[in-house]
Write a structure and sequence with these properties.
The complex is a heterodimer of chains A (about 190) and B (about 675). By secondary structure, chain A is α/β, with parallel strands linked by helices. Chain A has eight helices and nine strands. In chain A, strands 3-4-2-5-6-7-8 form a seven-stranded mixed beta sheet. Chain A has a two-stranded antiparallel ribbon with strand order 1-9. Chain A is globular and about 45 Å long. In chain B, strands 1, 2, 3, 4, 5 and 6 form a six-stranded antiparallel beta sheet that branches. Chain B has a five-stranded mixed beta sheet with strand order 8-10-11-13-12. In chain B, a hairpin with a 3-residue loop joins β12 (about 495-505) and β13. In chain B, α7 (about 315-340) packs across α12 (about 485-495) and α14 (about 570-580) runs parallel beside α15 (about 600-610). The interface of A and B includes residues 46, 178 and 182 of A.
């Protein structure tokens, strides 16, 4: 269970680790706000589009009709918006399906897992569950990429932006389109991992 | 085209070579040019399309995740490396995704509001290349890139190519020019040589020249043909030249002959004119002689009668009678001399073979007092040279006449040299006939030439032409003017010719040319016995009673019985009456010219009635007329006036003695 998250965590000094946990607690508890509908809609749109920029391994689609399942952990921040978007959406002919998950679900079987900030406090457990798979992890929880997540949404100048933890992506063996990578940004005030 | 025709072959060859090479290289260059430009346009289009695709691919994330203006500006930064792109913009779906890119900050800022439907590519339009590249992602069209480029690169390429083509063409032209300069010599040199040869031949007219053959191609064949032609021309030229030379020679000969013939004709004309003149003079002289003889006949006749019959004349009267007779004889002599000029040869005068050299020698000796003695007495010396042809054939002639001729010529020569000089007498034989064109019978074709030359005063042209005329003399009262005319008469009677060469102050040569005729030697005629013949019965017809009376008296003196008639008609009547009485006339003497019935008519009638009765024509014309008159056959003899008794006696003797002619007469007499 020395997954990506563990490695990142271990690379911190002891002081750093204490500070990380402290700061992470502040961040996860103090910044709980209700996002605007427009922002969540953009995030839903982005989430869906991320699937286009990832080279999925063959095991993801054993069958041509096998749908791409996006799992959502925690509260669904997108409402019906995401489900509506996926209706006509196809990834290389494969339909997209949304599933609400619990941390006890077999997370490794899902190609994409969105972790709402409401479930962020369970991140260690979640990462533990995902360890050994090649699931793309996306979250709007601040500090997600620093914690070992792959893509983290944030708001800058009123627009939705995202950061990508390339190391975490590489660790699970996923390959991302460069167009996605160049669009990634670090959240203001944070250095890339 | 006229300009092209006037160019020399050299220039034409070079022009053709250069022009065709230039054209070929122009075509090739143009082909390359068009191909290169086409290729370049395509590559430009492809390049722009690729650029648009790259931009599109790079902007997929941007479009999908809605980048900021700064990110958009970064996107366009890549275009700075492609300065030919003037305008660019990005569409997401059908809407502009960012602010467009404009290369020129101050240029027009226009972009299409919407992208063209997919399928539209880049196109050249309005001096620009523009178009859309649609962006697809995972099989879906998500947007488009619009790019517009100027054509500077194309133009640079175009001008670059143009410059290169120009340089290439100029270089080609130069090389082709140099090459054709060398090449044209191969073709043009033989042609120049040929043309030069032809020109030389034309100017110098030297057809022995030949063109040099340097190749075996068509030019070689042409030169062969040219040389063959020259060969033929040369042959023809030579033939023409020869023909011209011959023609020229023939013309020269012809001219000489025409000249000679003209001279001959002129000479002949002169000779004929002189001949005609002499003939006319002969007629005149004959007429005068006739009249004088007519007048002289009674004078002499009656003087003879008186002399014979009147014995009772006083001595004084007898002396006067003798004077009359002498004077009359002198006149008769002159007239007879004149006759020597005009008379023709009497058939009875037999031509005898004569050794002319001998006769000439005799005459030279005989005239010696005249050319030697007399001049010596006056202190003048005349030399006599003899130049005789020892083989001179004998000629037929009358020696007495020839003597007279020679004497005359010698005396003339002496008279022509009052200061002395040399007389040359020359005889020669001319083998080829030179005498009159139609010589009489027995002609041998040979001629004898007798020349008498002197070194005296010579004659002028008028004298030379007229000297043969009777009574023409340069000697004043000393000459009779009958000498040379006698010579002319004698030569004419010998059917010869006279040539006179005379140069005034140098001398004269008289040349007599006689034809040589074969002739039997005849014994000299018996001397006539001047005796009477037997008495005959004679009829005498003459319209002049005095004449008739004189003849009657003369004949009756010889015992003949004579009856007279004063015209032809009465004469014929008397003749017929006599036959009727059985007392025919033995001989009839008739005058020729009478009114009504003339002598010819009388003779014709008498011969019809009695063919054997001799008819004697009594005439003052002498024998002059016998040339022209053809109807004198009826006359047996011709008795010239004045009739002399001796002549009549001889004539009667001939008529009576000739048995063939006077057979009947003799028979009758015997009966």
């Amino acid at each position: 269970m020395t997954g990506a998250r563990g490695n990142v965590f271990r690379s911190f000094t002891m002081t750093g680790r204490i500070a990380f946990i402290f700061l992470a607690g502040i961040a996860l508890n103090g910044c709980v706000t209700h996002p605007t509908t427009a922002e969540k809609r953009a995030e839903a749109n982005y989430l869906l589009h991320f699937t286009q920029f990832v080279e999925w391994p063959e095991t993801t689609f054993p069958d041509p009709h096998t749908p791409l399942v996006i799992g959502i952990l925690g509260q669904n921040p997108f409402g019906n918006e995401l489900a509506r978007m996926t209706d006509s959406y196809r990834i290389n002919g494969h339909p997209v399906v949304i599933r609400h998950l619990t941390p006890l679900s077999n997370l490794r079987h899902y190609p994409v897992v969105f972790i709402d900030r409401s479930a962020a406090f369970r991140l260690p457990l979640i990462f533990y569950s995902l360890d050994g798979g090649n699931t793309l992890t996306v979250s709007d929880a601040p500090g997600f990429t620093d914690a070992g997540g792959m893509i983290e949404f944030f708001i800058e100048d009123g627009k939705v932006r995202f950061d990508i933890n390339r190391r975490a992506v590489d660790n699970v063996g996923l390959k991302m389109n460069s167009q996605l990578l160049i669009m990634a940004k670090h959240p203001p005030g944070r250095k890339g991992s | 085209m006229t300009l092209l025709r006037n160019l020399s072959i050299k220039q034409k060859l070079m022009l053709f070579a250069t022009a065709s090479s230039l054209l070929a290289s122009l075509l090739v260059s143009t082909g390359f040019f068009v191909y290169e430009l086409g290729t370049f346009r395509k590559s430009m289009r492809d390049d722009l399309s690729a650029t648009a695709q790259i931009i599109g691919n790079r902007s997929i994330g941007f479009m999908t995740f809605g980048g900021t203006e700064k990110e958009a500006a970064e996107l366009w930064d890549a275009l700075r490396a492609k300065p030919h792109i003037t305008t660019a913009c990005l569409y997401h779906g059908t809407n502009l995704a960012t602010l467009p890119y404009f290369r020129d900050k101050n240029g027009p800022r226009l972009v299409p509001l919407r992208p063209a439907p997919s399928g539209w590519r880049f196109d050249f339009k309005n001096d620009q290349l523009e178009g859309f590249e649609h962006i697809r992602f995972n099989g879906e069209e998500i947007g488009a890139v619009y790019l517009k480029s100027d054509l500077q690169a194309l133009y640079s390429k175009f001008y670059g190519y143009l410059g290169m083509t120009a340089i290439f063409m100029i270089a080609t032209l130069a090389i082709v020019y140099l090459f054709s300069l060398q090449l044209q010599r191969i073709i043009a040199s033989p042609i120049f040589h040929l043309a030069e040869t032809a020109k030389t031949i034309t100017t110098r007219r030297n057809y022995s020249l030949r063109a040099r053959k340097t190749s075996n191609d068509e030019l070689g064949q042409l030169i062969d043909g040219f040389n063959d032609m020259l060969e033929q021309i040369q042959r023809r030229d030579a033939a023409l030249h020869r023909a011209n030379m011959e023609l020229e020679k023939a013309r020269g000969e012809l001219e000489t002959r025409v000249h000679e013939r003209t001279l001959e004709l002129r000479e002949a004309q002169k000779a004929i004119m002189q001949q005609e003149r002499l003939k006319a003079l002969g007629q005149m002289a004959s007429g005068i002689a006739h009249d004088i003889n007519n007048a002289l006949s009674p004078i002499m006749g009656f003087a003879d009668l008186i002399h014979l019959t009147e014995n009772a004349l006083s001595e004084k009267s007898k002396r006067h009678l003798r004077h009359i007779q002498t004077a009359a004889e002198d006149i008769a002599h002159i007239v007879s001399r004149l006759r020597d000029f005009y008379r023709t040869r009497d058939e009875e005068e037999k031509l005898l073979p004569i050794n002319l050299n001998k006769v000439v020698e005799q005459i030279i000796e005989m005239t010696a007092p005249r050319w030697r003695t007399m001049p010596q007495n006056e202190g003048v010396t005349i030399e006599m040279q003899r130049d005789f042809d020892p083989d001179l054939p004998k000629m037929a002639g009358l020696e007495s006449e020839l003597r007279e001729v020679l004497t005359n010529l010698v005396i003339n020569a002496v008279d022509a040299m009052p200061e002395g000089g040399t007389i040359t007498v020359r005889t020669r034989t001319l083998k080829e006939g030179r005498a009159k064109e139609a010589p009489t019978t027995n002609a041998t074709g040979q001629s004898i030439i007798l020349e008498v030359s002197d070194t005296g005063m010579g004659m002028d042209e008028e004298t030379r032409v007229r000297c043969l005329e009777p009574f023409f003399s340069t000697k004043g009262h000393r000459g009779t003017g009958l000498g040379l005319s006698m010579v002319y008469g004698v030569v004419e009677r010998h059917e010869g010719e006279i040539e006179i060469d005379s140069v005034l102050g140098k001398g004269t040569t008289m040349r007599l040319i006689f034809p040589v005729r074969l002739i039997e030697s005849v014994k000299p005629a018996e001397p006539p016995a001047n005796s009477k013949v037997q008495p005959l019965h004679i009829l005498c017809i003459d319209d002049e009673p005095l004449q008739c009376e004189m003849v009657k008296e003369l004949l009756e003196r010889d015992g003949h019985r004579v009856q007279t008639a004063d015209n032809g008609e009465s004469g014929v009547t008397a003749f017929r009456t006599a036959i009727g009485r059985q007392q025919p006339f033995d001989i009839v003497i008739t005058d020729l010219g009478m009114p009504y019935v003339d002598g010819r008519e009388v003779a014709r009638i008498i011969k019809q009635g009695s063919p054997h009765t001799p008819v004697i024509m009594l005439t003052g014309w002498g024998e002059f007329m016998s040339d022209d008159e053809t109807d004198l056959d009826d006359f047996d003899e011709i008795l010239n006036k004045p009739p002399r008794l001796g002549t009549i006696r001889e004539m009667f003797r001939r008529l009576v003695a000739n048995p063939a002619r006077n057979k009947k007469l003799t028979t009758e007499q015997n009966a």
